[in-house]
Design brief:
Length: about 200
C-alpha cells in the first residue's frame, strides 16, 4: 500500500470533484490517500511521507490559482523524488477544436515553466458551468464567456464537460509508476511449533 497525496485548488468546485474521483480510484486500489485543498494546508505541511502526488488547478482569467503555483514551488524538491502528476481544468479544454486543445496545453506549459516543475504525467480536463450555483455577477460573466465561445448559455441548468474516462486513465497512468510492493508474509511455522500451540 502506498501513500498518495491529492492536492488541488478550486474556484467553483469542479477541480475538487475531479480530485475526489482520483482519490476514490486510488483508495479502490488499496492505497492510503490524503485529499486536500492547498489553501487549507498549514505552512508545516510536508510531502515527505508521500509515495505519489496528484496536483490539480483550474483556469480563471487565463491563469491557474496562485496558491497552487506557490505550493508547487515550495514543495518542488519533494515532488522531484516521487511519481507526480498535474492536471489542469478549464472550459478551454472542454472545446474540441485543435486551437482550444493547444491553448489548454499552453496553460499547462506556462504553469510548469513558472514553477520549474517536471511532473511525470500531465492532463487537461474540461470543467463545468454550474450556472445555478453562481451568484448573479458570476453567472452573467460565465454566460457571456460561454456565448463568445459558442458554448451553452441556458442559465437555468448546469453543464459538466469533464470526461470521466479520461480522469480514470490519467489516474491509472500515475499509479502504474508506483513500485510494486509485495504484502508482508507471515513467518513460516514448523509442524512441531504448530502442534505445540
Amino acid at each position: 500500500m502506498a501513500t498518495i497525496h491529492v492536492i488541488y485548488g478550486t474556484t467553483h468546485g469542479q477541480t475538487r470533484k475531479i480530485a475526489e474521483r482520483i482519490a476514490y480510484l486510488a483508495r479502490g486500489r488499496g492505497h492510503e490517500v490524503v485529499l486536500a485543498d492547498a489553501k487549507d494546508l498549514s505552512p508545516q505541511f510536508s510531502l515527505d511521507d508521500s509515495d505519489a502526488v496528484f496536483i490539480g488547478a483550474s483556469i480563471h482569467i487565463g491563469k491557474h490559482q496562485k496558491y497552487i503555483e506557490q505550493f508547487v514551488t515550495t514543495h518542488r524538491s519533494e515532488l522531484s523524488f516521487v511519481p507526480a502528476a498535474f492536471f489542469s481544468v478549464s472550459m478551454t479544454a472542454a472545446r474540441s477544436t485543435r486551437e482550444a486543445r493547444e491553448e489548454a496545453l499552453r496553460y499547462v506549459a506556462r504553469f510548469l515553466k513558472d514553477t520549474k516543475w517536471h511532473p511525470s504525467v500531465t492532463a487537461t480536463f474540461g470543467g463545468a458551468l454550474a450556472y445555478t450555483q453562481y451568484g448573479f455577477l458570476t453567472r452573467w460573466l460565465m454566460r457571456l464567456i460561454s456565448g463568445r465561445q459558442g458554448g451553452d448559455m441556458d442559465t437555468s441548468r448546469d453543464y459538466e464537460y469533464t470526461e470521466w474516462s479520461e480522469v480514470d486513465r490519467f489516474t491509472d497512468r500515475l499509479l502504474s509508476l508506483l513500485p510494486i510492493i509485495e504484502p508482508a508474509r507471515p513467518p513460516k511455522v514448523s509442524e512441531t511449533e504448530a502442534i505445540s500451540r
